[in-house]
Write a structure and sequence with these properties.
CATH architecture of the largest domain: Roll
Helix content: 25-40%
Strand order of the largest sheet: 8-9-10-1-11-19-12
Structural class: alpha+beta
Oligomer: single chain
Number of strands: 21
CATH topology of the largest domain: Dipeptide-binding Protein, domain 3
Mean pLDDT: 94
CATH class of the largest domain: Alpha Beta
Length: 510
């Protein structure tokens, strides 16, 4: 009944619009809170970035840095002062000019509110001051040089977005006026969000006037909807077996986009028994990535041996550093740690059952079997729902646990520093208590302060090499499954890139 009600609602929404003027998309994702200072998840950020813009942008399909609200910019020789020259005539949906004062007000408001559930920490620590030099010039001074600053000021990073009309001292919660190609005209939690094109957008007008996202309960319902033709596009997240089946349909396009999403195993390096580096190294040799990929994901995902996906800037930063499976080596290291068949290592493996889809329990089971194949380990699998999971993780309550990462911004450092020097306690590794913490921190500071891409790439490689010895994490697989898009044959404009974003303004239906 609920499915029929949702379809009926969409028919109502489409009334008065030509078929080619509306696209209906389906997902299993959800919106948390439509606030720039208090949200930190893929789908909420997807809606926000399509309804307003930042100083800079990433070009769809290439991820090259391009002008956004700012048409040009300069950087001081010391790397501390960034001067942005704004486009003339840019206005918000309500006709309010987007001048230097509006940019300054929006960014300072986000920095000030800095919600507990948000990602403001991606820009706040680096920004010292924001100045409106004249109506079309904004000057941002940094606390320290940071080679990633321009990437952080794109519309890929939601705290960098520019908006107006939000409550002065409260989170936006959908109450804002933006600069983007679309605005939200209806939002029903857990059911749908409706976007409508605006005439005031300074860029190329969107190809489709109205976009409706329908939110499905699970992957099976999402598959049924796209197979039945109830939706034009299905995105995030279908089950592997469904993707394989849908490839055989003559009525559908099944497209694999590139992915910068990774899945991995983490350790709290202060928590016995995994505080012993030989234990962590042994588990590194015992995991079976190929078994996970084949048995759980039907070969759709890909084993990885570093945290940094290939293709990210700076060029050459990614380096395979983790070893292939070697049970004899795993047993040798367990022996060095004092374990044997008669005295096995006993360790927990934690996972969250729904946050990453329906396959997580299967992944945990394959990992347990592979690691226990050493004959010297006994694993207890444990799970918690996502809210309790993240709380316990940040309190240091896990020894060994599964997590996933979708980048905050597309640069190699974002796949290395969060767990080591930026937020090691929040992300559960407690690596700030590790003897090598200061070494990682020193390397990171030099890497981020250099403008030389080759030098930065070498420094990022050094962190990866160190991580293969210290093992705060074990990279497992590239999450290609979430990058798949299934669409009806008549849908065009499906431009897929490492942002793993569906660029709504480019989509159209013939």
């Amino acid at each position: 009944m609920k499915r029929l009600a949702i379809i009926a609602a969409v028919v109502f929404l489409a009334a008065g619009a030509l078929a080619s003027d509306i696209l209906i998309l389906g997902t299993t994702d959800r919106i948390t809170e439509l606030s720039f200072a208090n949200s930190y998840d893929h789908f909420t950020w997807h809606i926000l970035r399509h309804t307003t813009k930042a100083l800079l942008a990433l070009e769809p399909g290439t991820n090259e840095l391009v002008p956004g609200v700012a048409e040009s910019w300069e950087i001081s020789e010391d790397g501390l002062v960034y001067t942005f020259h704004l486009r003339e005539g840019v206005v918000f949906w309500d006709g309010t000019p987007c001048d230097a004062g509006a940019v300054k007000a929006a960014l300072e408001r986000t920095l000030r509110l800095d919600g507990p559930e948000g990602g403001v920490g991606l820009i706040k620590p680096v920004i010292k001051s924001i100045e409106a030099v004249d109506p079309l010039t904004v000057r941002i001074t940094l606390n320290y040089p940071d080679r990633t600053f321009l990437i952080r000021m794109t519309d890929n990073v939601i705290p960098s977005l520019i908006y107006t009309g939000a409550p002065e001292d409260d989170f936006a919660k959908g109450d804002y006026v933006g600069l983007g190609p679309y605005r939200v005209v209806e939002y029903v939690p857990d059911e749908r969000v409706v976007l409508e094109a605006v005439d005031s957008y300074f860029g190329e007008p969107p190809k489709t006037k109205r976009v409706v996202w329908l939110m499905y309960s699970d992957a099976a319902a999402l598959r049924a909807a796209v197979e039945a033709g109830d939706i034009d596009v299905a995105f995030r997240t279908l089950n592997p077996v469904d993707i394989m089946d849908l490839k055989e349909s003559p009525n559908l396009q099944v497209i694999a986009g590139p992915s910068a999403s990774v899945r991995y195993l983490l350790f709290n390096v202060t928590q016995p028994p995994v505080d012993n580096v030989f234990v962590r190294q042994a588990i590194t040799y015992a995991v079976d990535r190929d078994a996970i990929v084949e048995q759980v994901f039907s070969g759709l995902n890909k084993p990885i041996y570093t945290m940094v996906p290939a293709g990210l800037p700076p060029a050459g930063a990614s380096l395979d550093v983790f070893p292939r499976r070697d049970l004899a080596k795993a047993r040798e290291l367990l022996g060095l740690a004092g374990y044997s068949q008669d005295n096995p290592l006993k360790v927990n493996l934690w996972y969250s059952p729904k946050h990453y889809g329906t396959t997580e329990a299967d992944v945990a089971a394959v990992l347990k079997q592979a690691i226990e194949e050493t004959g010297m380990v006994e694993i207890t699998i444990q799970s918690l729902e996502w809210g309790a999971y993240t709380e316990r993780m940040s309190q240091g309550g896990f020894d060994m646990f599964l997590l996933g990462w979708y980048p905050d911004y597309l640069e190699a450092s974002n796949f290395l520093l969060p767990w080591t020097v930026e937020s090691p306690e929040g992300l559960g590794t407690f690596f700030n208590h590790h003897p090598n913490f200061e070494a990682y921190k020193a390397i990171a500071e030099v890497a981020l302060s250099t403008v030389d891409d080759e030098r930065a790439a070498k420094l990022y490689q050094a962190i990866q090499i160190l991580s293969a010895y210290d093992v705060p994490w074990i990279p497992l697989w590239a999450n290609l499954q979430q990058a798949y898009v299934v669409a009806q044959k008549g849908v065009g404009g499906l431009v897929l890139d490492l942002s793993m974003e569906l660029h709504l303004d480019l989509l159209y239906k013939e």
